[in-house]
From TrEMBL:
A matching Pfam family: ABC_tran
Gene3D superfamilies referenced in this protein's UniProt entry, alphabetically: P-loop containing nucleotide triphosphate hydrolases
Protein's name according to its UniProt entry: Phosphonate ABC transporter ATP-binding protein
Sequence ranges assigned to domain ABC transporter in this UniProt record: 3-249
One GO MF term: ATP binding
Keywords in alphabetical order: ATP-binding, Cell membrane, Membrane, Nucleotide-binding, Translocase, Transport
Species name: Paraherbaspirillum soli
Length: 274
């Protein structure tokens, strides 16, 4: 079992609003591929950050790879995080960095700080970065600066970082939001192929309902920080979807994830480990 949550509630540390997630119970087996759907502010990002051990639950039980990460020592929890890859909707890519270094950051959990610093000066495995970028047709951007990339290219660069990681679980937040339909299909196919090849768990939040229904065998609907449904795609009905998004334009707070810190080498190591 990759993840197990029982009656879990989560509150952002600085929030004055109610819990961002309330009374969630969920089990995810190794190798499952799951789409998270729901209106903006439903709690999708918060759930991904919680699964990545970036947010500590207020109450309830949480096990990751069979252990409670918050009962472990800090070093043991960091080692466990190395088995996860959290891909935010806006990848934390330093604007002045070369794409090759940004992609190789996916290997930071396996590197010492000294090796990470050396790789910033002279990339240690540009061939691996090239191969990962090539799967998203970005190999020509290997030595481009990140601030020269379009929004869609930055998202795919973040996905190349995911591929180069050695994670056993991919937690991916809105990876297709800046992509046109053809690129979105291609990017999703590459992610799913990689997850299948290494028997990794893939949990992906999406606003594209048609892609979620067409490509994910299990779909979880969230609203107001609670699970509304957790079903196989063949059991998902139009009535369930309509209920999930009904009056969804009212203000929400559940998906306000913590801000991304400014880049330094220690922050880069922490981001990759989460």
């Amino acid at each position: 079992m990759t993840f197990s949550l029982t009656n879990l509630s989560v509150r952002h540390p600085s929030a004055t609003a109610p819990n961002a997630l309330s009374d969630l119970s969920l089990s995810v087996a190794q190798g499952e591929q799951i789409a998270l759907i729901g209106p903006s502010g439903a709690g999708k990002t918060t759930l991904l950050h919680t699964l990545a051990c970036a947010l500590r639950p207020e109450q309830g039980n949480f096990t990751l790879f069979g252990a409670d990460p918050w009962r472990l020592s800090s070093s043991a929890r960091h080692a466990m995080r190395a088995r996860l890859f959290l891909a935010p909707q806006t990848p934390p890519l330093p604007p002045r960095q070369r794409v090759v270094s940004a992609v190789l950051a996916g290997l930071l959990p396996q590197w010492s700080v000294w090796r990470a610093v050396i790789s910033l000066i002279k990339p240690t495995d540009p061939a691996a970065a090239f191969d990962a970028l090539a799967r998203f047709n970005l190999q020509d951007k290997l030595y481009a600066r990140v601030d020269r990339l379009s929004g869609g290219e930055r998202q795919r660069c973040g996905m190349a970082r995911c591929l180069i990681s050695r994670a056993d679980a991919f937690l991916v937040d809105e990876p297709l939001s800046a992509l046109d339909p053809a690129l979105a299909l291609h990017t999703l196919a590459v992610l799913q192929q990689e997850a299948t090849a290494r028997q990794a768990t893939l949990i992906c939040s999406l606003h594209q309902l048609e892609l979620a229904r067409a490509h994910f065998p299990r779909i979880i609907g969230l609203r107001d920080g609670r699970i509304v449904f957790d079903v196989l795609r063949e059991n998902l009905t139009e009535a369930m979807i309509a209920s999930l998004y009904r009056h969804a334009d009212r203000p929400q707070a559940a998906d306000q994830a913590p801000p991304t810190p400014g880049f330094d080498i220690h922050a880069a190591v922490q981001t990759a480990r989460c």
